Amino acid sequence: MWPAIEKGLEDVFLSGKFSHGKQVGHLESALAAYTGARHVIGVNSGTDALVLLLRACGLRPGDGVLVPAYSFFATASAVVLAGGRPQFVDIDPETYAMDPVALEAAVTDSSRFVMQVHLFHTMADLEAVTAVARRHGLTVVEDSAEAIGMRRGGVHAGLHGAGGVLSFFPSKTLGALGDAGAVLTDDPEVAGTVAALRHHGRPGRTLNNFPAISTDSVWPGVNSKMDDIQAAVLLAKLPLLEEQIEHRAALADAYTARLKGTPGILRLPRTTAQGPGDRDVFYVYLIEVEDRDALVDHLDRHGIGTEVYYPLPLPHQPAFAGLGHRPGDFPNAEAASRHAVALPFHADLDTGDVDRVCDTVRSFLAARRTAV
Ligand SMILES: *Cc1c(COP(=O)(O)O)cnc(C)c1O
């Protein structure tokens, strides 16, 4: 992989064009081919991709956007940055995505959008969410920042509604050497608007034939252009993505085989992919345990790094305190925040590493049980 990355970086240095140049256009085309999206618009992060997507889909100041109570911060902050108001919805404990029944109950007169989120290892239920959206005249967008490679019925994540996003933050399944992101959409008007908004409102470059749309007075454009260096890195890594996704699936199987039935584990990840056009991708391997914080400390003492996704439900974060939510309002989100932990997981691990992690997890849980 390194020779390809080096070659890509050299091309950028020799071109002297470091921002918003040819490499970005090539990456957009390659990602359109990979995802099947009619349009891919490269931007500087997944967060900005969400903000620009919401604006391009016609969000007006004060519009309600239904979002899950449990997700990465940017799911909700992007709504505020775009001028909207997050309306939080509890999650399905199995998929960690917005629960369609709770969604229907949370719709108000000011709701205009639903932002479904695909987290960790499986795609959210979009059929039920889309049915609710249709009944209430809401536009569906997807925070598919973690979901590269995931498909339902042959359609890639992010393309089941008005549009979606990808994040190329270094730890994501396809990671750059810094920040980068993209908007995915089949709608030429949305594509043209995002292409203008990312560059101070100037109509998009012609390389990928974005419709030349000047953004109107509602939203001034911003500077959210993608760096060519990141585009070159991603172009070099993209051909290896499918192989890495297969390796990730094998690692996840190895984890599940070793942890299944272990007393003290409340939940192991389960994919909901069923048909031939359905595919899930393990971005992280997340388990739930009763005594999460003690397990994290124990693994840390044994040199095993973990990541707690997500330690505080979004409605309880200081940025959204003004909405007045109380503990107990989102029981499933709160339970996930208390119990979920991601074990070491990336494409360079092998099953020997998985064995070591699982032995340490199991011996900790066994010792807790005897101690009780
Ligand atoms: C990573 C991520 C984002 C934001 O992407 P950045 O590129 O880090 O800005 C948004 N939503 C979810 C669910 C994410 O995991």
UniProtKB/TrEMBL annotation:
Fetch the InterPro entries from UniProt. DegT/StrS_aminotransferase (IPR000653), PyrdxlP-dep_Trfase (IPR015424), PyrdxlP-dep_Trfase_major (IPR015421), PyrdxlP-dep_Trfase_small (IPR015422)
Q: Does the keyword Transferase apply?
A: yes
Gene3D superfamilies in the cross-refs: Aspartate Aminotransferase, domain 1 (3.90.1150.10), Type I PLP-dependent aspartate aminotransferase-like (Major domain) (3.40.640.10)
Q: What is its EC number?
A: 2.6.1.-
**Record keywords: Transferase included?**
yes
* CDD domains documented for this protein: AHBA_syn
Keywords tagged on the record: Aminotransferase, Pyridoxal phosphate, Transferase
What GO molecular-function term can you cite, just one? transaminase activity
- Chain segments annotated as coiled-coil in the UniProt record: none
In the record, the note on similarity to other proteins reads: Belongs to the DegT/DnrJ/EryC1 family.
Q: What protein am I looking at?
A: DegT/DnrJ/EryC1/StrS family aminotransferase
What organism does the record attribute this protein to? Streptomyces griseosporeus
* Species classification: Bacteria, Bacillati, Actinomycetota, Actinomycetes, Kitasatosporales
